[in-house]
Design goal:
about 475 residues; alpha+beta; Phosphatase 2c, domain 1; 3 domains; six-stranded mixed sheet; 12 helices
């Protein structure tokens, strides 16, 4: 034994204090981990992930934490490391977190997943997880972003959408959408009685008169309701029109006028401008057209005289774009012209190419003197084949924008036509309008008119 070796006195007071502090911190962290684990296992607000399950949503900061292989471990490490609950920050309410979850999903997927945005003209939304219609909380004239937010709220409140089940098959939802269209009340999707001629009217009801609209608007509405109700059947053809004004009376109009000898004048037009003045221009143009065809049935002459007739009703800089054609039904011959309007789209599932744009050209109505306008008229003739489906529309369809301000566009419109060209004309016009409305998150921003003419249409399904 070395009597001169110093006796071990143990740790100093400072060392003991440091050890005790380390043990306290270790115990505190273990307790924190226990509480965090308990919250992640038991508290619904701490268990919200993105719809695809790839990320956990922090209930304090809304940070997305990668969690492809289960969220508990990843979430616990994030909370222990970042401590977003420091300084008294509380977890957000569960309903707010669910809305955020669905908002992320809809914003990322609505463009590519049409099942999320099946919305009817009267503001009902088809839940893709249940196949049931739900009324969205929307104000009149809601914009696309508001419609999208209403869909987000509906998804967040739907137990079926939040229990992990997949969406229903597209065919099931399409059938539910078709049943709703067939059962729609008169005035919301009104149907003319003539066999082979159908008119869909959406976005406007008879009791929607606005206070203070005035006698001019009332008179224009009455005249238009009568004029647009005239939809004659065309032997060997099916004709359908979807007409959806944004106001009581829109700036779009269409016509299908019998000329005798199984010849028919067809037209789709769009007046620049809205309100009472635009509505009165529509009425004046339709009246003039009916008068002109009694005196001449030459397409170029009809367009020339209509150009001169509407000038007195147009404001400075105002004009009308118009597509017009004369159909000789027995010969399946269509002479037509686009006066400042988009060309006619033709699709046939049995032809090559599947779709094409055709049409003669002329300037928009009301912009040029008669002599200049008449020289610019160039009509075009198309010989129609069985199965040909023709579509003409106004720019309210092609310019319908989604919440990202991206337009539906001409390519999608033609693509929609191709996709339904093997259906009946009635189904086609509904589907084309529906596709554009889905793109716009359920709400058009302008008047929409879509005309579909089908050569030698298939017989409608019974019932």
């Amino acid at each position: 034994m070395n009597w001169f070796q110093k006796k071990d006195k143990g740790p100093s007071a400072e060392e003991q204090a440091a050890q005790q502090e380390a043990e306290r911190r270790e115990a505190a962290e273990a307790e924190l981990r226990r509480k965090i684990t308990l919250a992640l296992e038991k508290d619904a607000a701490h268990r919200v992930t993105t719809v695809d399950g790839m990320n956990w949503i922090c209930p304090y900061s809304l940070t997305l934490v990668p969690a492809a292989f289960g969220f508990v471990d990843a979430a616990r490490e994030f909370l222990v490391d970042k401590r977003p609950f420091a300084n008294g920050v509380r977890a957000r309410p569960l309903d707010e977190l669910r809305r955020h979850r669905w908002r992320l999903h809809v914003e990322a997927n609505s463009e590519f997943e049409p099942r999320l945005r099946i919305v009817s003209g009267e503001g009902r939304w088809l839940n893709p997880y249940t196949g049931q219609w739900a009324k969205l909380a929307l104000r009149p004239g809601a914009q696309a972003a508001e419609v999208q937010e209403a869909i987000v709220a509906a998804l967040a409140a739907s137990p079926e959408a939040n229990d992990g089940r997949p969406m229903l098959d597209d065919l099931v939802l399409r059938e539910a959408e078709s049943r709703a269209a067939r059962a729609a009340p008169e005035g919301e999707a009104g149907e003319a009685q003539a066999l082979g001629a159908v008119k869909r009217v959406a976005g406007r009801q008879a009791d929607d008169s606005r206070v203070g609209a005035g006698a001019d608007m009332d008179r224009a509405r009455g005249i238009l309701d009568k004029m647009l109700a005239e939809m004659p059947a065309i032997p060997g053809f099916g004709l359908a029109v979807h007409y959806e004004p944004q106001d009581e009376i829109g700036g779009d109009f269409f016509a299908c006028l019998p000329l005798g000898g199984e010849r028919y004048l067809l037209a789709v037009a769009d007046v620049a401008g809205h309100g009472v003045q635009g509505a009165l221009v529509v009425v004046a143009a339709l009246k003039a057209l009916r008068f002109i065809v009694k005196e001449t049935q030459d397409l170029a002459a009809i367009l020339s005289r209509l150009n001169e007739s509407v000038k007195a009703d147009l404001l400075q800089g105002q004009f009308i774009t118009c597509w017009m054609g004369i159909l000789e039904a027995p010969a399946r011959r269509l002479e037509h012209i686009c006066a400042g309007h988009t060309p006619l789209a033709v699709a046939n599932p049995r032809a090559e190419p599947l779709a094409r744009r055709v049409g003669g050209k002329a300037p928009a109505l009301g912009m040029l003197p008669a002599a200049v306008f008449d020289k610019a008229i160039r009509t075009s003739v198309i010989e129609l084949q069985p199965g040909d489906m023709l579509m003409q529309c106004t720019d309210g369809l092609t310019e319908a924008s989604n919440p990202h301000r991206e337009e539906f566009g001409d390519l999608r419109a033609v693509g929609s036509l191709v996709g339904v060209s093997d259906r009946t004309f009635e189904q086609a016009v509904d589907a084309i309008a529906t596709d554009a409305r889905r793109w716009a998150a359920g709400s058009f921003q302008d008047d929409v008119t879509v005309l579909v003419l089908q050569c030698d249409p298939p017989a409608a399904d019974a019932g």
